[in-house]
Amino acid sequence: MNLQPEFHFRRFEIKYLTDEDTAENIKKDLMPYLKHDPFADQEAKEYEVRSVYYDSPGYFYYQETLDGYNSRKKIRVRCYRTGGQIKDNAFLEIKRKEGVIVVKDRIRLNLEELRQFQKTDTLLDSGRSFSSKEENFIKEYEFERVIRALSPKILVTYTREPYAGVYDEGLRVTFDRNIKAAQNDNLFYDGGDMERIHPGEVVVEIKFRRGLPVYMGETIKKFSMIRVPFSKYRKGVEETRAIPGSFPGITRGFETVSYI
């Protein structure tokens, strides 16, 4: 089995917000078609995701999300933790969204490279050699960093319970809980001042590269699941009141899913 992280993703992503009981029932309904993700802790079947999001002084990327632009972008640095230990690999990511289609590129960083990046916000002085694809990625990041004066704004953490498709390559179903955010630029920060986002609720996310499997559509109908454009970064900005005029609120723009 190849467990090497991919540089490039292009896939559909749809999200649902539900309560714990419904999330457990959805999982039970889908388990004949799913298997535990090999990247997760093999006992707990989960891992912690930790992301620091970058934005301009005027929060350009947040405003794109708030205004509902169909085409938008996020830049973040991300690592994972299992059993209380940070995994060796972290990533600098550029995530582009076109409706429900997500295109994501990322460069893998070891922990020393990650610490250096957190100090400088650039890879230009890393001394590392990059592939041509990675060099193009760095050029895009540096363009955004300079033209928008990017800096780290919001730390978002959550626990992810991930599954992969048994019969459908590229299918992933994840259950995200305990989402928290803080105005902090340290990916390893664990302070007690982090704000909770939708406590007691679960973000169910379905990711696929081609058509939505029939059994997945049947589960969506069975549990009357309603798609919601849920952005953890936007919620983090609002819950931490990072900018004037942002405030905790109810997710807007609910849509019925159009894949069934």
TrEMBL record:
Residues 11-238 form the VTC domain. GO terms for biological process: polyphosphate biosynthetic process. This is VTC domain-containing protein. It comes from Candidatus Taylorbacteria bacterium RIFCSPLOWO2_12_FULL_43_20.
